[in-house]
Amino acid sequence: MGCFLSALIFVLTIPILKAQSEMSVTIEGDASTAPIYTMEGHAISQFRIDDYMDVKSDFQYSMDNVNSGLVSCVGTDKITTDPGTVEPWDGTFDVVTIYTIKQYGKSITASFNHLLHSKGVVIKNGKSAASATVSSRGSMQLQKNFTFYGSMKGQIIAKDSLGNIIDNHNYPTDHTCNFTQTFSDVSTSDWGVWTGDYTLNRFINILSGTGVATFGPIKDPVDTVAQNLKGTVSKSGIFSWSTTSTSKADNKVKLTIKHNSYDQLVNGQNSVNAAAQSRKF
Predict the structure, then answer these.
(1) CA gap 56, 182 in Å, rounded
(2) Helices (H) and strands (E) in the chain, counts
(3) Which of 17, 60, 66, 269 shows its CA 20 to 30 Å from the CA of 182?
(4) Are 154 and 114 in contact (CB under 8 A)?
(5) 228 lies in which domain range?
(6) Beta pairing class for 127-129 and 70-81
(7) Is the same domain home to 177 and 58?
(8) With contact defined as beta carbons under 8 Å apart, do 240 and 257 qualify?
(9) DSSP letter assigned to residue 236
(10) 223 closest CA partner among 212, 215, 211, 231
């Protein structure tokens, strides 16, 4: 990606009128500098509950846009228990849930509340359960190696063909279940990447213009946000401007920028807001 927020890149300057000029500005960010993390792609995980139950998850994450931290998730959970377990389990569950990204320093955390419905017959305590549901709630945190570490707890309910409950208990029994989740088809070099391309019009010391902010993997962005900008130029030559999105659906996506007339940002006076994250640089 080359230069990430170490400087602005002035692509073009064209005089228009005696007191008016136009310039194009590109700003780029990545995981090492003011990242905006998104959650899209195929993720797999495996973990144990109470040292006898194994859960294998296969999820697909997607974001409609980066105005909020909401992430849709669909997939399956395969739940089994060790041979000889007093209360054996063997079943596959459909998963449909929403994750919520929350601010967490330079990284992110995401909270979730799963509701799993059985896919076919579930074996519970040696009996065939016609239906079963598993609810789980918890949170997970993105690590520097682009793996999520998290914890969860919940409830399991299984019913026979007559609707009678044959199992109803909370899990884990006396602690919180920890898990690790790794995205299997996401380029880690793309995580946190965002780009802003803007055209600034200067009339005396007033700035206006338009542009586009793009968030997510380079080859398949999560969201592209059209924006307007406005600002001023100080007597000392500092350009100060901020953006607003043209669509209400992206109204929380915003950049605030300060730079000089060359290619230097005013350190610590810039920010980007998207996907429930706010970064200063």
Answers:
(1) 12
(2) 0, 20
(3) 66
(4) yes
(5) 9-36+189-280
(6) unpaired
(7) yes
(8) yes
(9) T
(10) 215
User: In terms of domains, do 250 and 154 share one?
Assistant: no
As given in the structure block, the two tokens for residue 221 are 């962005």
Where among 185, 200, 224 does a domain terminate?
185
Q: What is the DSSP letter of 88?
A: -
Tell me if 26 sits within 8 A of 263, measured CB to CB: no
**CATH number of 54's domain:** 2.40.160
User: Rounded to whole angstroms, how far apart are CA atoms 88 and 1?
Assistant: 51
Per-residue pLDDT of the chain (281 residues; tens, 9 = 90+): 332 233 344 343 444 444 578 888 999 898 888 999 888 888 888 878 777 888 888 999 899 899 999 999 999 989 898 988 877 888 888 988 888 887 666 567 888 888 888 877 777 666 788 888 888 889 888 776 667 888 888 888 888 888 899 888 888 877 778 888 877 766 666 878 999 999 999 999 999 999 999 998 888 899 999 999 999 999 999 999 999 999 999 999 999 999 988 778 899 999 999 999 999 99
List the one residue out of 155, 165, 95, 177 whose CA is nearest residue 127.
165
Q: Terminal CA-to-CA distance of the chain, rounded, Å?
A: 18
205 half-sphere exposure, CB direction, 13 A CA radius: 9
CA nearest to 205, candidates 228, 237, 229, 227: 237
Q: Which helix (H) or strand (E) holds 4?
A: none
For residue 132, the one-letter residue type is A
Same-domain pairing of 181 and 52: yes
Same domain, 110 and 233: no
Report if residue 3 sits inside a domain. Answer: no
Please report whether residue 176 resides in a domain: yes
The contacts of residue 152 (CB under 8 Å, 6+ apart) are 112, 114, 136, 137, 138, 176, 177, 179
The last residue of one of the domains, among 185, 213, 243, is 185
